[in-house]
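[Discussion] Sanity-checking designs against the backbone

I'm trying to build intuition for which residues belong where. Below is a C-alpha cell string of 142 positions. I'd appreciate it if someone posts a full sequence so I can compare it with mine line by line.
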C-alpha cells in the first residue's frame, strides 16, 4: 500500500513538472508567433509598399520588388517552418500531457487490471506524438 502511495505521488510530481514544461513551451510559442508577426509587418511596411510605387495602370512588378520578393521567399519559409513546427510539437505535447493527466487522476485502488493495462498501453504508445514530425523537427535544428 505504501509503495502504491509513493508511486502515485511520483506520478503526480511528473504531471506537475510536465505542466511547467508545457507552460514554458507555450510562452516560447507565443514569442515565436510574435517574432513572425513583427517580421512580416516589418517586411510589409518596408518592402512591399516600395513595390507598389509604380505608375497607375502599370502591371509589371519592378526589378527591385521582384528581388525583394525573391529574397523574402528564400528566407521566410525557413522561419515559418520553425514556427509551424513549434506549434505542431506544442500541440502534440499538450495532447500527450492531457492524456497523462487524465490517466494519473483516474488511478486508484478500485481500478480493474484491464483498466490499468489499457492505461499502461496508452501511456507507452504515446498516441499523440508523431515520430515523423519529431524527426523533421530534429532535421530543422541540426
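Best answer:
Here's mine. Compare freely.
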Amino acid at each position: 500500500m505504501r509503495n502504491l502511495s509513493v508511486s502515485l505521488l511520483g506520478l503526480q510530481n511528473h504531471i506537475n513538472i510536465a505542466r511547467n514544461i508545457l507552460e514554458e513551451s507555450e510562452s516560447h510559442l507565443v514569442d515565436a508567433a510574435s517574432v513572425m508577426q513583427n517580421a512580416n509587418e516589418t517586411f510589409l511596411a518596408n518592402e512591399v509598399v516600395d513595390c507598389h510605387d509604380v505608375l497607375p495602370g502599370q502591371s509589371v512588378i519592378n526589378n527591385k520588388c521582384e528581388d525583394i520578393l525573391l529574397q523574402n521567399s528564400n528566407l521566410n519559409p525557413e522561419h515559418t517552418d520553425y514556427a509551424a513546427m513549434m506549434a505542431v510539437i506544442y500541440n502534440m505535447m499538450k495532447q500527450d500531457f492531457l492524456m497523462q493527466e487524465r490517466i494519473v487522476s483516474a488511478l486508484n485502488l478500485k481500478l480493474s487490471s484491464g483498466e490499468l493495462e489499457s492505461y499502461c498501453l496508452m501511456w507507452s504508445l504515446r498516441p499523440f506524438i508523431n515520430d515523423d514530425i519529431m524527426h523533421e523537427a530534429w532535421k530543422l535544428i541540426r
